Amino acid sequence: MGHGHGHGAAHTGAEHLGRLWIAFAIGAAFMLVEFVVGIATGSLALISDAAHMLTDVLGVGMALAAILLARHAGTRGSRTFGLYRAEVLAALANAVLLFGVAAYVVYEAVRRLGDPPAVPGLPVILAAVAGLAANLVSFFVLRDGAKENINVRGAYLEVLADLIGSVGVLLSGLVTLLFGWRYADPVMGVAIGLFVLPRTYKLAASALRILFQHAPERLDVAEVLAELGRLPGVAEAHDLHVWTLTSGMEVASAHLTTCDDADPAQVLKAAQDMLAARYHIEHATLQVEPGDSAHRCREIPW
């Protein structure tokens, strides 16, 4: 029995921490600005954008805590896989939080449509411009890390939602200032909330897929099993499991029944090399077994 060589743990690198710290500082500062101006002017669009930015700050804070926890927890004692799943739990909590805020904003905006309050346009525009600038910086800071880490992707999606929200607030402020249309603010509040919801669903689905230990979407499990079975010296491959521990860490296990004249060490190396090269699975636990023992694992009911 053997396993692969690496853990693919680039997702815990210092570059992710640096990006998250920058996004956290920027988000916290401009969240306060938007809350103060939104409450002072009674702008629901601005308050909703500030609330989204609050979820950014909380979400990025959870992402930071999860990555730090995963980096320093190690695999001591009963934590044989460390605490890498903390990142996935943080992403799921982030999605739940964002869903709650978006739902509240939509509800409040619909309620206000019956009697929209007068909102001064200029302060809303100035605050929206400041928020837009902050979100643009955070957007570009987190964009690269979001491609390889679900935790950073959660923070990135919230920043993206806030970026669109800031544009919406800016437009509603301009419409209010130029035309005095009182419905601009609640209408934009509804639009921002509806924009966020499907992205929140996608993030939650990705996190749940990992927590339920589904195979990665990019992999065809039947194809992987067939490729293992076609390796030289392998009579049959079975009992294949593939799952994601956390972003960038995909794990596999399988049983390989060998031919009578096969060298188990060569079969093991060939299987590990194939999984790493073709499917980017670098941590694979493979049980190489002679033909007369292959029936034993099939007796397991699950």
TrEMBL record:
The chain crosses the membrane at residues 20-47, 53-70, 82-107, 119-142, 154-181. It is found in: Membrane. Keywords: Ion transport, Membrane, Transmembrane, Transmembrane helix, Transport. Coiled coil: none annotated. InterPro entries: Cation_efflux (IPR002524), Cation_efflux_CTD (IPR027470), Cation_efflux_CTD_sf (IPR036837), Cation_efflux_TM (IPR058533), Cation_efflux_TMD_sf (IPR027469), CDF/SLC30A (IPR050681). Its main location: membrane. The keyword Transmembrane helix applies. Residues 20-211 form the Cation efflux protein transmembrane domain. One of its GO terms (cellular component) is plasma membrane. GO terms for molecular function: zinc ion transmembrane transporter activity. The keyword Repeat does not apply. It is a multi-pass membrane protein. Belongs to the cation diffusion facilitator (CDF) transporter (TC 2.A.4) family. SLC30A subfamily. This is Cation transporter. It comes from Saccharothrix syringae (Nocardiopsis syringae). The lineage of its organism: Bacteria, Bacillati, Actinomycetota, Actinomycetes, Pseudonocardiales.
